[in-house]
Design goal:
By secondary structure, the protein is an all-beta fold. It has no helices and nine strands. It is globular.
Length: about 110
């Protein structure tokens, strides 16, 4: 990748050296992903996403009541859920228009 846009970042509360960043080629972009670092940002690895994003992955959210559950979204409306603190992501069936922010509220 010659250039990379970082849309959002998140540190894992119980693992302070673990950081996730949402990435893409530009906004709105044609491709994106989520990278994870377990050494405070020295090295980065792509996370597993079951469906390739349709644009830059722009935002990520979690809640302190269940930090292993995360939600992320691409700029063009794909929403992904992780149940393992961001290592693996599954796209939800519903798609939306442009997404610029997320808030996950537990039931």
């Amino acid at each position: 990748i010659s250039a990379c846009l970082v849309g959002s970042e998140m540190c894992i509360r119980d693992s302070p050296n673990t950081v996730l960043v949402c990435t893409g080629d530009y906004v709105p972009g044609k491709t994106g992903g989520i990278q994870i670092s377990t050494d405070a940002g020295l090295t980065w690895t792509p996370t597993n996403m079951d469906v390739e994003p349709n644009s830059t992955v722009y935002c990520i959210a979690t809640h302190k009541s269940n930090p292993d559950r995360m939600v992320a979204a691409s700029n063009y409306g794909y929403v992904y859920v992780s149940e393992d603190a961001g290592r693996n992501w599954n796209k939800v069936n519903r798609e939306f228009g442009e997404i610029r922010g997320l808030c996950w509220v537990p039931n």
